[in-house]
Write a structure and sequence with these properties.
Radius of gyration: 22 Å
Order of helices and strands: H
Shape: rod-shaped
Mean pLDDT: 89
Largest sheet: none
Structural class: mainly alpha
Distance between the termini: 64 Å
Number of strands: 0
Strand content: under 5%
Length: 51
């Protein structure tokens, strides 16, 4: 990276992009886990009816 104001601003922008990407990944993972938990609750309810 250049040791200039532009270089430092560009590096900060890259860090912000990386942080934003990580936040998006966490949100997607949380949404997936919530969906899977709901499916498991549905399966459990069906199994409880059958057994």
């Amino acid at each position: 990276m250049e040791d200039t104001l532009y270089g430092k601003a560009n590096m900060l922008h890259c860090v912000k992009d990386k942080n934003r990407d990580q936040v998006v990944r966490v949100i997607v993972i949380q949404k997936t886990l919530i969906e899977h938990a709901e499916k498991l609750r549905q399966v459990k309810a069906v199994l409880e009816e059958v057994l």
